[in-house]
Design a protein that fits this description.
By secondary structure, this protein is an alpha+beta fold. It has helices spanning 5-10, 61-76, 81-95, 99-110, 116-134, 144-156, 160-180, 212-221, 226-238, 242-246, 279-292, 313-320, 331-342, 347-353, 361-370, 372-390, and strands spanning 18-21, 26-30, 36-44, 47-55, 253-254, 259-262, 273-276. It has a four-stranded antiparallel beta sheet with strand order 1-2-3-4. The chain has a three-stranded antiparallel beta sheet with strand order 5-6-7. It starts with a helix and ends in a 12-residue tail after the last helix.
């Protein structure tokens, strides 16, 4: 059967490389490191050969098929597509490697080591902001003023974070070019000197603990999807990042052990994170099982079940509840941190619960193992205090010193 995008996206690495076949010799090779590489197997003059078409997702399924069809036309004319590719490269060297060629090679090399969200953003900015403007230019001919102008166009949209990322990636692409011998200098240095002034730091708004019962009450009276209600309540009870929750597959949860283990590939700090689940969170997950348990994801998208809930869904629901400018999905992390620090809990427990990084790798490994049971007790007390507050009880008695 021909390949599908969903089959490619869900393909996981194994101990040894393996193939996913499409048609007419095209296949995707999945390496143990997670790279997904397009290959074409063909025969010419009685010999079997292979041709590479780049890495997924920067080279899409449709683009790989176009490359395959082009190669098959060459074969029909008696031309070896592999030799033709070499000849094209030699011709390109005569005029200079283009920025697009260098950028795609840089992406293919680095993306297997990135978090999925980072790879997606880098691909998006390459395709939308960099390649359309300077992609066809010989990379050696591009000047620093051209790169400054490119970044200023992004800044003019008001997307300063994106502009900062593009400056960073331009610098990395040229460093890669230097190491590869493609360029002799890096015009992407010091682009930050003429960067637009940063906007005032944006804090994630959040209500006070005393206001939380009213917010939780509005969840049930506002016309929002049941999955969204469950997502908001789980953010309150776990303090994970909204993106970690939205994209969570059922396979990460052990309801019997009351733990949720998020692999390092999905974590901002690039190390695995174990989330203890209080009884209240387990009850929500049991309810979710009846709704989305047959899907891979806890929160499948409404249009495509293999894609997670939209990243705007939770904040949109909070706006509908009347909390625009007062509460965001990420703000629940700040609420928990403020409240538990105020109750005198050990700061390391709180930081570990929030999955904040630790520059000391040995200390981080020890804390990861040592604090799970302390955090389990702390998060159960947190959940119980929310129930008590919603029932009108005084939570002073729930405060605890580490």
């Amino acid at each position: 059967m021909p390949l599908t995008d969903s089959a490619i996206k869900t393909a996981k690495p194994k101990d040894k490389p393996y193939k996913l076949s499409d048609a007419h010799g095209l296949y995707l090779e999945i390496t143990p490191t997670g790279s997904k590489l397009w290959r074409l197997k063909y025969r010419i003059a009685g010999k079997e050969k292979k041709l590479a078409f780049g890495a997924y997702p920067l080279t899409t399924l449709a683009e790989a098929r176009e490359h395959r069809d082009t190669a098959r036309k060459l074969l029909a004319d008696g031309i070896d597509p592999g030799e033709q590719k070499k000849a094209d490269k030699q011709a390109q060297k005569a005029t200079g490697v283009t920025f697009e060629a260098l950028a795609r090679e840089w992406y293919a090399y680095n993306s297997p080591r990135w978090a999925e969200s980072t790879a997606r953003k880098a691909s998006l900015y390459l395709e939308n902001d960099m390649i359309p403007i300077i992609g066809a230019r010989p990379v050696k001919a591009i000047t620093r003023p051209e790169l400054v102008e490119l970044v200023r166009k992004v800044e003019a949209r008001g997307t300063l974070n994106a502009a900062g990322k593009i400056r960073q990636w331009l610098h990395q692409i040229y460093r890669f070019g230097l190491a590869s011998g493609v360029v002799d200098s890096n015009p992407a240095t010091d682009l930050d000197v003429v960067a637009a002034p940063a906007k005032a730091a944006r804090h994630h708004p959040h209500v006070t603990f005393a206001e939380l019962p009213e917010l939780l009450g509005k969840i049930d009276t506002t016309n929002i999807n049941t999955l969204t209600r469950c997502a908001i309540r789980l953010l309150v009870l776990t303090a994970v990042r909204p993106g970690e929750l939205r994209a969570a597959p059922w396979s990460e949860f052990d309801l019997e052990a009351a733990t949720w283990t998020i692999p390092k590939e999905r974590m901002k700090a690039r190390r695995p994170h174990v989330v203890p689940l209080p009884r209240q969170a387990l009850a929500i997950l049991r309810t979710l099982e009846e709704i989305s348990g047959s899907y891979a994801l806890l929160f499948p998208g409404q249009q495509k079940a293999d894609r997670p809930m939209s990243d705007n869904t939770i904040n949109k629901a909070l706006r509908l509840m009347g909390y625009e400018g007062r509460q965001t999905g990420h703000g629940f992390r700040h609420l928990l941190s403020t409240e538990l620090n105020g109750r005198g809990y050990n700061k390391d427990w709180i930081e570990r619960q929030l999955a904040h990084g630790d520059n000391d790798e040995i200390r981080a490994t020890y804390n990861h193992a040592a604090y799970l049971e302390q955090r389990r007790e702390m998060m159960q007390a947190w959940a119980d205090s929310i129930d008590a507050m919603c029932a009108g009880a005084n939570v002073v008695s729930i405060k605890r010193k580490a």
